[in-house]
């Protein structure tokens, strides 16, 4: 566990705001598989308990490729990755696209 930082309410709110902006941008790129309208998927959310997935490690997935018939949460991460690619690589693609669009990308708070 990281050492707990002491943030003022104002700093906390600013972090929250930055995270929302980032996730909005990720979603706006569309599904990383098929480009349909997307929501964000936290790439570590299949992992062990106690690890909070970072909002900066998110990729856009449409309903079908997220929770639907061909979804990562339906097939399971291992099987899904064999078909559609590794989450880590997809995350890199997302970051590259965001850099292309916005000039830079945040990768953490
Ligand atoms: Zn899709
Ligand atoms: Zn998800």
Question: What would you note in describing this structure?
Answer:
This protein is mostly helical. The chain is 48% helix and 7% strand. It has a domain at 17-45 and 53-98: Herpes Virus-1 (2-Layer Sandwich), CATH 3.30.40. It has a two-stranded antiparallel sheet. The longest helix has 20 residues, at 9-28. The chain starts with 8 loop residues before the first helix and ends in a 7-residue tail after the last helix. Residues 31, 33-34, 36, 61-62, 64-65 line the site of one zinc ion. The site of one zinc ion has 5 residues, from strand 1.
Spatial extent as radius of gyration: 15 Å
Strands of the biggest beta sheet: in what spatial order? 1-2
Determine the N-to-C terminus distance.
15 Å
What is the H-and-E element order? HEEHHHH
Percentage of residues in strands: 5-15%
Helix share, percent: 40-55%
Shape call = globular
Give the key terms.
Herpes Virus-1; two-stranded antiparallel sheet; 109 residues; mainly alpha; 5 helices; binds zinc ion
């Amino acid at each position: 566990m990281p050492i707990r930082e002491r943030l003022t309410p104002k700093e906390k709110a600013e972090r929250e705001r930055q995270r929302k902006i980032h996730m909005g941008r990720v979603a706006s790129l569309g599904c990383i598989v098929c480009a349909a309208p997307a929501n964000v998927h936290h790439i570590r959310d299949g992992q062990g308990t106690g690890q909070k997935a970072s909002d900066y490690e998110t990729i856009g997935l449409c309903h079908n490729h997220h929770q639907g018939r061909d979804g990562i949460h339906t097939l399971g991460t291992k099987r899904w990755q064999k078909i559609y690619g590794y989450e880590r690589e997809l995350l890199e693609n997302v970051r590259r696209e965001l850099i292309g669009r916005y000039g830079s990308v945040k990768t953490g708070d």
